[in-house]
Amino acid sequence: MNPTVLVATTSCWYPAARLVMALHRAGCTVDAVCPKGHPLRKTKSIRQAHAYYGLSPLASFTRAIAISQPDLIVSGDDLATQHLQRLYAHEKRSWKREKKDADSAICALIERSFGDPESFPALSARATFMDLAGKEGVRVPATQVVRNLDEVKEWVGRMGLPAVLKSDGTSGGKGVRIVNTLDEAESAFEKLNSPPSLARAAKRALLDRDKTLVWPCLLRRRPVVNLQTFVAGREATSTIFCWQGRVQASLHFEVVKKTSSAGPSTVLRLIDNPEMSAAAEAMARRLRLSGLYGLDFMLEAESGKAYLIEINPRATQVGHLRLGPGRDIPAAFHAVLCDRAAARGDGAKAAVTDTERVTEKDTIALFPQEWIRDPESPFLRAAYHDIPWEEPDLVQHCVSSREKQSAWYRPKAAAPVASTPEPLGARTKSSSAGLGGQ
Questions:
Q1: What is the 3-state secondary structure (H, E, C) of the chain?
Q2: CATH number listed for the domain at residues 231-319
Q3: For FRET with 254, which of 66, 92, 180, 343 sits at 20 to 30 Å CA-CA?
Q4: For residue 78, what are the CA distances in angstroms to 84, 292, 313, 336, 430?
C-alpha cells in the first residue's frame, strides 16, 4: 500500500503542483487541501483535493486530515505552516481540558510531519531563529527585532548601513526592504509594521486567490519587523528533507535570476557548498526537524563565505527536482515513509537507491517563473527549462491564467507574456519554440 501524503497550501502557488507530481511519481498517494482554483487540481497525480477556506482555515485542514488519513503532511506555504501550528496548539489545549493522557491523532501527525513542536516558535520568528543558528556555530548576520522608530535609529547608529528590514510571516520577498539611508529605514519600517490595507488584502484574495492578508487586515494585526545587517554578495538557497533531526536529502543552488531584487528565484545553478550543507545539518539537528524546509544564504562577495539569513518552514519551489543520489527529495521522502510502515509491520522497507537525474545540466530555468520574467531569456534554451510536458492541462492552465491578468498587475520588470505554444504537451520543434525547448 502506498503511503499517503497531504499537501496543504493556502495560495495558488504553482510549485505546489510540481511537488504533488514528484511525490506521486516517487510512489506516494497524494491528496491536497488547497483553494478551489489551485493549479494542482489540473494534474493527474492528485487523488483528491479538499477545499481550503480562508475564513475557516483550521476547519478546512481538520476536515482534510480526517478524510485523507495521511501518513505525513507537507506545507506548501508559510500561512499553511502557521495554520498547522495553530491547529496543533488548539488540539493540545482541547485534550488538556478533557484531561486525556495521550495526544490527539492530529497532534501526533503534525509532530511526525514537522518535528519537535518546541521548535515551532523559532521557525516563525526570524530573530529567534538567527540567534539559535549563531549558537550552533553557523555564520549569520546580526539580526534584531525593532518595535518602533527609536529602535530603528538606535540600530542604524550602532550597526550602520546598508541594512535589511524583514517582517515575520512573509515570503517571496514581499516583506523585505534593503535600505541605504536612515530615511529609507524609517519609511520601510512604517510600511512593514502597518497592518495590510483592505485594498491590498482584497487584491491579493481576488487576483492571486490568496487569502493570506484577510485576517491580518480585519484584525489590524501588526507584523513583527526585524533589522538585519546587509551582506554583499551572491544569493544562494537550499531545500532539505529532514527526518527526526537528520537531513535525508538536500539541494543547494546559487541564484542566477530573480523576478525582482527581493523576489523569488527564476533561474538557479546547482552547487556543492560544504558550509551550506553543514548549516542545514546543524539546524535540522538543533531544532529536531522533520519534513521539507528551505534555507536562504548570502555568499559573501570577497570571501565566498556562506551566511545563513533565514529559514522557510515549508516546501520550496525546487523540492520536486530529481538531481541524483542525495539530491532526490521525493525519493528520500518515499523511502522514509516506507521504512516507517515496515517498522509497524505494514509494508516493506524501501532504501533510496541511485536515482535518475532529470537533467545533466546544473543550471535550471524554473517554469513558468523565468518564462514570465522574460519570454526571450537565453536561459530558456541554454539551461534546463523545467516544463512539465507530461501534464499539458497544467501547462495550459498556468499560461492561460497569466495571460488573463491585467498589464498593471504584472511585475514592471517582466516583459509581455508570449502566446501559448501549440500543440501543448508534444515535445516537437514547434511546441518547444515558444517556451524554450529542452
A1: CCCEEEEECCCCCCHHHHHHHHHHHHCCEEEEEECCCCHHHHCCCEEEEEECCCCCHHHHHHHHHHHHCCCEEEECCHHHHHHHHHHHHHHHHHHHHCCCCCCCHHHHHHHHHHECHHHHHHHHCHHHHHHHHHHCCCCCCCEEEECCHHHHHHHHHHHCCCEEEEECCCCCCCCEEEECCHHHHHHHHHHHCCCCCHHHHHHHHHHCCCCCCHHHHHHCCCCCEEEEECCCEEEEEEEEEEECCEEEEEEEEEEEEECCCCCCEEEEEECCCHHHHHHHHHHHHHHCECEEEEEEEEEECCCCCEEEEEEECCCCCCCCCECCCCCEHHHHHHHHHHHHHHHHCCCCCCCCCCCCCCCCCCEEEECCHHHHHCCCCCHHHHCEEECCCCCHHHHHHHHHHHHHCCCCCCCCCCCCCCCCCCCCCCCCHHHHHHHCCC
A2: 3.30.470.20
A3: 180
A4: 10, 12, 7, 24, 39
What the block records as the C-alpha cell of 293 is 524546509
301 three-class SS:
coil
- Look up residue 401 and give its three cell numbers: 491564467
Number of neighbours of residue 287 by Cβ within 10 angstroms = 25
Interval 45-89: pLDDT, tens: 999 999 999 889 999 999 999 999 999 999 999 999 999 999 999
Per-residue pLDDT tens digits for 165-197 = 998 877 666 789 999 999 999 999 999 987 666
Instruction: Provide the pairing of β-strand 265-270 with 246-258.
Output: antiparallel
Q: Fold for domain 4-114? A: Rossmann fold (3.40.50)
Kindly state which CATH superfamily the domain 142-229 is placed in: ATP-grasp fold, A domain (3.30.1490.20)
* Residue whose C-alpha cell reads 518595535 in the numeric block: 147
Would you call 18 helix, strand, or coil by DSSP?
helix
Q: Is 164 exposed, middle or buried (0-12, 13-18, 19+ CB in 10 A)?
A: buried
